[in-house]
């Protein structure tokens, strides 16, 4: 017969057997549900952090809740120049693409421009 001391020694040498239990499907469903809920909560918290980062760019009016005047908004140097240096080349590039696309369509007789004057 095995004594209780021997059983305890065997179990203590194998700690993974101490807490072994059969897992039911309800436990698996509950743990999966808790993982999904935790994932959704983390996503919501991340969105809140993103909103906090965008806070300086959102307009809240001139006055604070206490009635104090807010500081001047941040100004970006050369804002118009930066805008124009991006906008003008890409508008030109878009017009070139459309021009050559219409020429190709006319060449393949898929689009033919008719200049009919009915006057």
UniProtKB/TrEMBL annotation:
InterPro entries: MCU_reg. The keyword Ion transport applies. The keyword Transit peptide applies. Its main location: mitochondrion. GO terms for cellular component: uniplex complex. Coiled coil: none annotated. The chain crosses the membrane at residues 80-101. It is a single-pass membrane protein. It holds the Pfam family DDDD. It is found in: Mitochondrion inner membrane. GO terms for biological process: calcium import into the mitochondrion; mitochondrial calcium ion homeostasis. Keywords: Calcium, Calcium transport, Ion transport, Membrane, Mitochondrion, Mitochondrion inner membrane, Transit peptide, Transmembrane, Transmembrane helix, Transport. Essential regulatory subunit of the mitochondrial calcium uniporter complex (uniplex), a complex that mediates calcium uptake into mitochondria. Belongs to the SMDT1/EMRE family. Component of the uniplex complex. Interacts (via the transmembrane region) with MCU (via the first transmembrane region); the interaction is direct. PANTHER family: ESSENTIAL MCU REGULATOR, MITOCHONDRIAL. This is Essential MCU regulator, mitochondrial. It comes from Didymodactylos carnosus.
């Amino acid at each position: 017969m095995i004594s209780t001391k021997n059983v305890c020694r065997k179990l203590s040498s194998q700690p993974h057997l101490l807490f072994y239990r059969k897992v039911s499907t309800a436990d698996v469903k509950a743990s999966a549900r808790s993982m999904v809920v935790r994932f959704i909560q983390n996503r919501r918290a991340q969105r809140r952090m993103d909103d906090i980062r965008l806070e300086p760019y959102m307009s809240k009016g001139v006055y604070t809740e206490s009635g104090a005047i807010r500081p001047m908004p941040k100004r970006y140097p050369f804002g118009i120049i930066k805008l124009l240096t991006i906008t003008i080349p890409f508008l030109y590039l878009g017009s070139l693409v459309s021009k050559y696309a219409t020429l190709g369509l006319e060449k393949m007789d898929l689009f033919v421009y008719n200049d009919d004057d009915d006057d």
